Fold these 4 entries.
Entry 1:
Amino acid sequence: MISFILNDLIIQTDEKSGTPLLDFIRYRKHLRGTRIGCREGDCGACTVLEGRLEGTTMVYRSVVSCLMPLGNAQGKHIVSIEGLNTEILSPVQQAIVDHDGTQCGFCTPGFVVSLTGHATDQQPSSPHRVIASVSGNICRCTGYKSIERAAISISNVLKDKDPADPIGWLVQHGFLPDYFTGIPEKMHTLQKKALRARMARTLLAATQEEQFLLGGGTDLMVQKPEVVAVSVPHMLFDRADLKQISADQGDCIVGASVTVTDLHASPLMQKLFKRLDDYVYLIASEPIRNMGTLGGNICNASPIADLAIFFLALNSKVYLQDQFSGNFRSMFLKDFFNGYKQTALKPGEILHHLSFSMPGDDILFHFEKVSKRNTLDIASVNTAIGLKMQGNTISEANLAIGGVAPIPLFLKKTSEFLTGKSVSAQLPAQAAHIMDTEIAPISDIRGSEKYKRLLANRLIHAHFVKLFPKQ
Ligand SMILES: Cc1cc2nc3c(=O)[nH]c(=O)nc-3n(C[C@H](O)[C@H](O)[C@H](O)COP(=O)(O)OP(=O)(O)OC[C@H]3O[C@@H](n4cnc5c(N)ncnc54)[C@H](O)[C@@H]3O)c2cc1C
Ligand code: FES
Ligand code: FES
């Protein structure tokens, strides 16, 4: 039994946990404002809000319902466009009208939901952040400038939002219907029902085959939608033990179900990586960042997985847990990938967390990515570098690159070459020369082999330009 709140109603359903939330909303609840565009997380027409109770406050994030398995709605408040409508237009809807931000209207519910999600954000609004909030929404007819103008006008209004009670302020100012103020109480009722359902589920678990592991679903629901839709996956997304980001005796621990947005919001990660903002905005779009997990990114073993590349350059270790015995084993992330889409995971194991030595002032780190589009696109080539410095000398180097081999590639020879070298104007070219012997790009839709070699070369230079601007 899956229990959640859809708009202002408590839902309890026996639907399969792999059912796309989109289908449940449209075909079971007949709420047709949530549109079907691509079913691949690319267009944002199906965007809804996912709310969770944190302490006494509701926190909302936008998600694409086509890739969200129903099981991940468990214990949450899901808001479709119908759940935002009142007798009059909300300030978000009015801004879209005022700035001519809609024509055929097909994409408009998705934009309204994303912008309302931005309004609920606890961080202060800014032009950059409000535009980023619609990075997952595509419009085929209006043209983005009018939508951007609408977004910026909303951002201006949000400057007055009360940071102590954002939801109360948004209800008062018509952004959200009145029923939102009663949601925390409903969530408590739901939690009691969910607890009973969980107990029933535990009794069932011995007889019920959970067919495969599922995090946010943003990879698997694109690759195998028909299989997931009729399945009972082993849901990892909301497991509390997989959600930690913490410091432990000089190491940073990141749980497998931490999302890209969780990483971005983490004060610890922000402290460790000064350019975290720039790196995060290179990954996917806001709803995909809200859903996609570290575990899914690493375990799908895609050669261009951004987080895999990021954490390879920190010489991270992964911790694998056997689900039956609870036992752990660990290995370096660079030894985890066995071949194209193959990992060292054994049957019954999950990636539980990874850890890396927390970079101090002596560590320089940088991530670069080039893709065909600025947002909502996977990399043609991505790369990250971690350098431990003693004065001008590199005492340890960890360099990783994606899109140029069957796996997210740790550049062993290039890293060894850089270790012990003094930084000079010639060093990037020498390192890029070694790197060229380690990679094996193929021509595909993201570029020819020649283009990717050239790109990889320029990105190695880019690391040094960013880290040593005076060389
Ligand atoms: C529109 C769009 C844009 C995207 N853009 C990017 C991008 O810019 N950069 C990028 O790197 N990726 C991108 N992706 C890919 C994807 O979003 C990420 O790889 C994401 O991190 C996958 O995480 P998930 O939790 O959604 O994975 P899921 O789909 O839940 O799982 C992926 C695989 O990992 C396994 N798995 C999940 N968690 C665990 C675990 N803890 N232990 C063992 N196995 C596990 C699952 O069984 C499955 O095989 C994009 C996807 C979409 C749809
Ligand atoms: S239908 Fe396109 S993102 Fe869901
Ligand atoms: S208004 Fe037609 S797709 Fe956006």
Entry 2:
Amino acid sequence: MVSLTQFINKIKPRHKHRVITMGYAVAIVFAFVLSLSNNNDVNASVSTTDRTDYLLLENTISEGFDEPETLYPTERILNIKSLFDMVSSYQREKEIEKMLTVEKGDTFISMLTAEGISYEDAHEIYTAFKKIYDPAKIRIGQKFLLRGTYDNKLKKIISIDSIILQANNIERFILEKDENGKYAARGEKEELIAEVNSATGAISGSLSQSMNKQGVPNKIVSEFIKIFSYSVDFRRDVRKGDKFEVIFENNITKEGKIASYGDILYAGLILRNDKVSLYRFKDSKGNVDYYTDKGYAMKKTLHRKPLAFQNARISSPFGKRKHPILKRWIVHWGVDYAAPQGTKIFAGGDGVVQVAKYNGSYGNYVKIRHNSEYSTAYGHMWKIAKGIRPGTRVKQGQVIGYVGSTGRSTGPHLHYEVVQNGKRVNPTKIKASTGNNLAGKELKNFKKMVADIKGSYSKMFAAKSDTKIAKK
Ligand SMILES: [Zn+2]
């Protein structure tokens, strides 16, 4: 298969150099000087008295003027119309190759007609091409190679033998004239190989800088951040010395060139003493999502009812209400779920504990920051769970406390608040999750895949972390 570069190389003028005798050259120069006195069209800058111009002219002639091999005659020669006319009897049509680059405002047909092709021919070519590739889709900067016949007298391409259009890194379309003079188009596609890459490193400065430093391309970096954006707030949670791990695919050509970046198969963040791992998984329905190694979906929204007792009823809704103790209308900034004392309270989502203390009318109170957008708060707890203190990283569903009636409360219940961008919103109106946790056979398949990846990355990252990270 021939690459685009090889095509470009082919265009280099062939050097079938023909030696011109000095006498012939002098004769042409003389003829040219004569023509200047008769023809006002000749570019005025070509002075007959300027010695430099003479030298340039002689050089041009001695480099093969009688049969120019290059498709791009120098500007000077183009300007010397009459001289061309005089020697036109020595020139015929010739086969040429020309690379065209799509510029702003170009259409496939306008590019062909600009080279001298008749509109009818251009249209025929367009129609033949369209059977496999619509030339209306050409983009600025795209290249295609023309092979055809150039008329040196008319100074244009008068017929086309073939066009090779490089559609992208791996695909090109070839249009050729067959024996009957009809155009036929075909496509050639290079098969890509998925290559698995891994990278790991300590984070210092920005995450993207740290990842770039280990050779992770920007497209993979932004994908990595997107994958974690549901559970990690990069600005607050990620600190100097934390580590990243990533396994991703490149789609490479047979020559080993990267044609496109593939998917992230595994993404890991090691935050101080905590590790967040996410794995890409395609379920039997074809849905792709990222999951923790236990099969929890990444794209989970906050729990609407973060309690072990899922039958708990709403004893007081979000919004305006008459306060049971204060006996006046006030806004209730959360939802109250009535539940027996001691019922487990779960973290509504992955995050970091911000507050865990007795907090006035809230009683025993925990506040968790999930990401830059969401926080949740839990009031009237009987007890705060062991280990829950400011800075503790929690997972969705982890027990953070137990239902009680501490603070301003009339009976055991959970007061649950969801804060979105600094404003308290109705927890029951949070949009349903787009991702579902894996279960049953899906979970079994997923766990097998995770085991495979873990098996290979322990090798990949062990070697790398020894040199890159462990030395700190
Ligand atoms: Zn309440």
Entry 3:
Amino acid sequence: MKNKYGFNLPTRIEVEAGLLKNAGLPIRELLVGSKAFIITDPGVIESGITAKVTDSLIANGFTTSVFEQVQANPKDVDCEKGGYEARRFGADLIVAVGGGSVIDSAKAIAMLQTLGGSLSQYEGKGKITGSVTPIIAIPTTAGTGSEVTRSAVITDTRRKFKMTLKDIALAPRLALIDPEATYSLPRKLTASTGMDALVHAVEAYTSLQANPFSDALAIAAIEKIYPALPVTVHNGCDKQARDALMIGSLMAGIAFSHADVGAVHCMAEAIGSIYDTPHGVANSMFLPAVTAFNASHNKKRHARIASACGLDVSNLTTDQAAELLVNKLAELAEEIEIPDFNSLEQADPADFALLAELSTQNGSTPNNCRPISENDYYELFLECYNK
Ligand SMILES: [Fe+2]
């Protein structure tokens, strides 16, 4: 826990079921401009959500242009194309309609439209001078948290490395949170994105950068996400659980944007850049093993997480509660049918040295609650593979 910290949430948040079909109104009230460049992906277009947002923007006086070339683990080349298209269109605002890949791409595209150049120039923290085209985020998954963070993770296709761009200028001006956008989310996507949200909360709460504000949000997020996640996976129509997951994900996003994530994300981003594994699936594969690794170092915080999950820890010691958490996280991943690391076709022990190196290089490694070496990462990849 840091004794010097700040808390700054530059994103205005509006929450309402059904909000996205009237999205144009709050956007019009907040921003002056007439040209909305919409970033989305083919799956979200197919769901009909992009059309609802576009219609509402047009009804509120905006001219729109849609850019849909976003892939999972978003790529620098697509963002550079999007930046060029946004500039050609003369966008006044960038509207992201989609999951984490879409919202992260929108941040990169807004930046490239304004500042030009190639994406790798802006890798790291605080490389952006001035403001960028205003970004509106409309998440369609409950997991990413990107709608309230100031960072974007984009794959550098030349280096096969996930770059993080981090600057307050990348924070969306407005996040429109409509739980209804997730009601028809397919089961597998619900499971993997929901686990991503849970990892955000767990890693924020155990991060060395945690502070009382991020702690409060992380614990509240865990209280919502842990019980709701299996319900949403087994019964996607349960609106109460869908709503809880959406708000939990939002809280977890605010928490980790102030406290950072840890080793689970470092390993997930490493396999995301080499194997193109979807982010939520990758996180889920490593959460139990990393939690076991970390729990021994800070049993008290892990026992508190167990309690926030609603597990009965009343007659348990701190050690036993932390151990129960590790077991329950593994059970949850199994219950919602997250595949194991060794079920990945590409997973190959010959890559583990490189994966460990990439994980070590990740900017979040120093904030993991337990010091973690390249060799520790190697052993964790091996442990998950041999499970
Ligand atoms: Fe994540």
Entry 4:
Amino acid sequence: MIKVFEDFNFSRVGQMQSLLEAHGIRTFLKNEFGSSVVGELPFVEVIPQLFVLEEKDLGHAKELLSAEIAASQPGEDWTCSACGAEVDGHFAQCWKCGKAL
Ligand SMILES: [Zn+2]
């Protein structure tokens, strides 16, 4: 079993699991209910984690995940709604006034 992805946002991890399962990759989700026990366990123990069960699927899984992650990154430049500055798509915050996207 090899860990391929983890995120504090459980729905994000679930989304990645669906993606891999849709491509015939068998997966295992750890700490699925972790958020309910935050505070009782060390923080690191409760990050939802996605594993692939078989090592032969690892390369494929990583390809799918990195494509998915790249696709979800902001790529387009955006205009700040507060001050009207043009902000590079790599930034989630206005360089001029600090407002979040
Ligand atoms: Zn701004």
